[in-house]
Specification:
Elements: H1 2-36, E1 41-43, E2 48-53, E3 58-68, E4 74-85, E5 93-99, E6 124-126, E7 130-140, E8 149-159, E9 165-175, E10 183-188, E11 195-198, H2 205-211
Parallel strand pairs: 9-11
Antiparallel strand pairs: 1-3, 2-3, 2-10, 3-7, 4-5, 4-6, 4-8, 5-7, 8-9
């Protein structure tokens, strides 16, 4: 009986230590995720894209939704897009942000690039537990022109508290015809399948309805 009693006390002590350790680790994790963790910014999937051949550049317009799931304000210092031509394997192109809060109607105005004076690109500050929608026009000033073929666009962004570029979402744009000069082509991917067709196919509303039932 004495041996059984000693074993019971021993295993009870071990169980108490394990329970206390789990409770302590849970407390530390809770404090980290709710008080100590810095900003943690994520970018939502690409659901809409517009491409354009301009007089002296090509442009990509994608609405972006940045969400800060951290507990401190996060600052995005810069964003950019990398474009890969999947049809002919040409070199990767860099698209830099040019105009913030961009209005697509500006692409219809004859001339060169729209003015970036009234809406320049600034650092993006996002409060904790909140999101911010950005409508940015990205441009590349090379001799490249959008033509029929497949392209991959991938977003990268740099946060002020990190030395590395963060990988954002990517999607494939399937351009079914050459894009005329000074004319933009747009399409959407509302279900975020990772593929955008330009011009778009007819939407199957029966499939849409099944998603909500």
């Amino acid at each position: 009986m004495a041996a059984d009693s000693s074993n019971f006390i021993y295993y009870s002590a071990i169980a108490s230590v394990i329970s206390a350790s789990i409770a302590f680790l849970s407390l530390i994790a809770n404090l980290y995720y709710n008080y100590w963790r810095g900003p943690s910014i994520q970018c939502g999937k690409i659901r809409y894209a517009t491409i354009c051949n301009m007089n002296d550049a090509t442009a990509i317009y994608i609405p972006l939704v940045f969400t800060n799931i951290g507990v401190n304000t996060g600052i995005i210092e810069r964003v950019m897009i990398l474009l890969d031509n999947l049809s002919d394997g040409t070199n990767r192109l860099v698209y830099l942000p040019y105009v913030d809060d961009f209005d697509l109607n500006q692409l219809k105005i004859p001339g060169a690039l729209p003015s970036a004076v009234e809406s320049p690109i600034h650092e993006i500050a996002i409060e904790p537990k909140s999101n911010k929608i950005k409508n940015i026009l990205f441009i590349n000033q090379t001799n490249f022109r959008f033509r029929q073929g497949k392209y991959r666009i991938k977003l990268y962004y740099k946060m002020s508290n990190s030395p590395k570029n963060m990988e954002g979402p990517s999607t494939i744009i399937d351009v079914k015809r050459d894009v005329a000069e000074r004319k933009y082509e747009a399409s959407s991917d509302p279900l975020a399948t990772g593929k955008i067709e330009i011009p778009p196919d007819t939407i199957n509303f029966d499939e849409w309805w099944m998603l909500f039932n």
